[in-house]
Amino acid sequence: MEKMSSSDRAKQFMPFAALRGYYGEVRKKEKIYKERRELLEEEAIELSKKVVEIKKGDVYKILYYENGGYIETMGAITQIDLTLKTLSVVKKKINFTDIYGIEKA
Fold first, then answer.
1. Contact criterion met (CB below 8 Å) for 81 and 56
2. Is the separation of the CB atoms in 39 and 50 below 8 Å?
3. By C-alpha distance, which of 76, 57, 69, 59 is closest to 27?
């Protein structure tokens, strides 16, 4: 039996993407491009109440504004900073002022 070269052997362990480009296309679909809309006073009050109730470790679905569009993300709340007015969903830090909608998952 012939020995395999180390470069050929390394190729066996390279990541394989059966659906090349698929994940990029999915990410594009997650973003809804729209102009930023200011919350009405009642909406802002309701959102503030929800933010105060959030506990670290709870899973939430959050709609927030970033780079010209609204993005929806879902995950566990890993940090809440009332001083800087930010919360983190897994590793993504979101400013309170960018949050448009939030609901417990």
1. no
2. no
3. 69
Domain boundaries defined on the chain: 34-104
- Identify the CATH number of the domain defined by range 34-104: 2.30.30.520
Phi, psi of 42 (to 5 degrees): -65, -40
Per the CB < 8 A criterion, the answer to whether 76 and 57 are in contact is yes
Q: pLDDT at residue 42 above 80?
A: yes
DSSP string for 40-58: PHHHHHHHHHHHHH--TT-
Cα torsion through 67, 70, 74, 75, rounded to 10: 30
Strand pairing partners for 32? 70
**The model's pTM:** 0.65
